[in-house]
Amino acid sequence: MNKVFKFFKVILICGVIFILFSLCSVIYFGQNVRPQKSDCIIVLGCKVYGTTPSPFLTSRLEHAIELYEQGYGNYIIVSGGQGAGESISEAESMKRYLVSKGIKTNHIIAEDKSMTTMENLSNSKKLMERNNFKTALIVSNKYHLKRASLIALYCKINASYSGVFVKEYKSHEVAGYLREVPALIKFYLQYIYYKFF
């Protein structure tokens, strides 16, 4: 019985260490990545209220506009399908917002089918290939960037990253960091499964 107890104790300790390591990697990556000039900027989707971008999505879009105006990318890919409670796709909502802020329509490419980060990036990769884009700058909340970077690597996207932290919604941001840990673990498990089975 003592051996069984010790075994589960070791497993528990290893699990806690891995969880803490994952959380630290999420925080560190989001804080330390820097954008690089790229062929396009990819804005990952987030909740839309009816037709209006949520505060998190608005912050991502404003950041993308800044990067676009600073010459980090000549085109913006907006990626996100239509979820529950959304009157239009996230991509369409983002496109409308960008146009309202003066971004030329022919500089915006909409990807409106994706429902997950994996789909966001795999579908965006197809649009990049169609438009002969070789590099991308991926924009999301800082807590989201570590997992996005792993998925981008899986999708073979040559990318840099830049994130936002919405100070007015600190509790939501903290929740986002905590949610990323199981999401990150899920990605690792899925990757191992598809790689070896």
TrEMBL record:
InterPro entries: Cell_Envelope_Assoc (IPR051599), DUF218 (IPR003848)
GO biological process: Gram-negative-bacterium-type cell wall biogenesis; peptidoglycan metabolic process
Transmembrane segments annotated in the record for this chain: 7-30
Organism from which the protein derives: Clostridium thailandense
Keywords, ordered alphabetically: Membrane, Transmembrane, Transmembrane helix
Boundaries of every DUF218 domain copy: 39-155
Protein name, entry field: YdcF family protein
Family matches, as Pfam families: DUF218
Cellular component, GO annotation: plasma membrane
